[in-house]
Amino acid sequence: MRAKTRLFFTTLLASLMALPAAAEEDARPNVVATTGMIADSVRQVAGEHVEVRGLMGPGVDPHLYRQTRSDISAMTRADAVFWNGLYLEAQLDDFLARLASRKPVVAVAEAVPAEQRRADDESPDQPDPHVWMDPNRWQHAVDAIEVALSELAPEHADDFAANADAFKQELSALDDYAREILASVPEDSRVLVTAHDAFGYFGDAYDFEVLGIQGFSTESEAGLSRIEELVAMLVERRIGAIFVESSVSERNVRALVEGAAAQDHQVRIGGELYSDAMGPPGSYEGSYLGMLDHNMTVIARALGGEAPAAGRLGRLAQANAENEDDK
How far is CA 256 from CA 52, 206, 250, in A? Predict the structure, then answer.
């Protein structure tokens, strides 16, 4: 079956490459980015000089995402493709490996030095791909984006460099905010339980113990023994809040709540976090900085810390909506 799939993509890629490019009034280079986090980061660096299209929208799980024919056409016709790599977009691996022989295909997360990647003890050759959860590590991805765009449009290299520097300053400011509010969470409450193991880099950066029901990939199944193990931990350590994710089913998280309740321990849902996808397009949470601001603020407040309800810049939608309702 895998051989047939490979042959299909090879044939389709060849046929699409043979098609004449559509005439466009916009002479800017056009690039495709797989996830929202990458697309937004590319836009921050590119500014007005590059047209950026993102493939995966809010609520889309990149671990399970299967490309459509229109996706394949968009990537084939693009001047460059930006993806995470580290086996995040597992279903795209074969296609992008072949496309890389024809045009720039940039795995931005693989710019993070190997010694800064989290390893999976059971699969050491497949490191944790969720590097965007640490804004400091993500600066390596921003550098990779700047280099790739400068090679694509060298006449704008100075602008790309300036934009990348400004974006990295914002990432550093967000990291400072996170350290301040997350340090206010009582030490024995710094336990983050979520649907899958997407927050390990967050835990490394801000000294939180992170426990996912599923592993690095949502392709893995959560067994009954894992559910029972986490329920026992919640009860024993009196953990009061756990979190759902916007791109992963709530089913397993709800099972933890019900399991703890059966043992006379009440666990509440502390909020919805953005893990593998961002918020609605056009919203603050629909930006990379906004999704992290949301996560950091929600986690701090739910686990007993002190943080402004509307986040670092006062822009979080949920808090502002609640303020409007109170008027």
Answer: 40, 24, 10
The mean of the pLDDT values for the chain is: 89
Beta bridge partners of 196: 214
Query: And the tokens for 286?
Result: 């629909």
* Residue 45 and residue 146 in contact, taking contact as beta carbons nearer than 8 Å: yes
* pLDDT at res. 249: 82
d(CA 248, CA 48): 34
Token match 């059966």: residue?
262
Beta bridge partners of 107: 83
Structure tokens at 12: 């389709």
Amino acid identity, residue 271?
Answer: G
**204: pLDDT strictly greater than 90:** yes
Residues in the chain: 327
The C-alpha atoms of residue 148 and residue 162 are separated, in whole angstroms, by 15
207-211 LR contacts (CB < 8 Å, sep 24+):
207/182, 208/182, 208/299
- The whole-angstrom separation of Cα 37 and Cα 66 is 18
d(CA 123, CA 107): 20
Rounded Cα distance between 148 and 80, Å, is: 9
In this predicted structure, what is the pLDDT of residue 261?
96
pLDDT of 4: 46
| pLDDT band, residue 220 (cuts 50/70/90) | low
- Both structure tokens of 1: 């079956």
- In the numeric block, the tokens 């969470």 are attached to 185
Q: Euclidean distance between the first and final Cα of the chain, in Å?
A: 59
Secondary structure of residue 28 in the 3-state scheme? coil
Q: What kind and span of H or E run contains 269? A: strand 268-273
